[in-house]
Fold:
Amino acid sequence: MARWEQFIHTERAAPGVIKVTIQTSAYPMVGEHWQQQLTGSNKKRWGRIYIDPDPEAKAQRRSIALGPFKGLYKGQVGNNNDECPGAMFIWETQTTSHVQPSDAKSNQEFGTDLYRALEHRVLSETHSGPPTSIKKRMAWWEVQFEFC
Structure:
């Protein structure tokens, strides 16, 4: 069993929609940050969230969100900044991602696990038809987040 399978569950909620359930305690600080941002009244801040396959758009969103924090942890092992929603997503409101200091290990594990979980779901839902790259297959799926 892959690591992500232990802590992140995905299901097809509707055509083109993936529901992602994240076990918050598996990702110290980061899980709580995402739960705070993507539930309750903060959820409206983002609107619908979609997977965006464009590398240039991801880089631009990441640069805008993390720019004010550039160099904050330079030379400090184990620290980095978590952005929520992450740069691999685009959201309706186009508000800049919320950034919070976090544990580097947890942040990196979460990012990898979330990507692998989404990749697995998209591949299982798009198994038929002509072969296309995973980036193209992942394009523009709506992602709905839940936490446990």
Observations:
- The beta strands are 8-14, 17-22, 49-51, 79-84, 89-91, 98-103, 142-147.
- The CA atoms of residues 47 and 92 lie 5 Å apart.
- The chain has a mean pLDDT of 89.
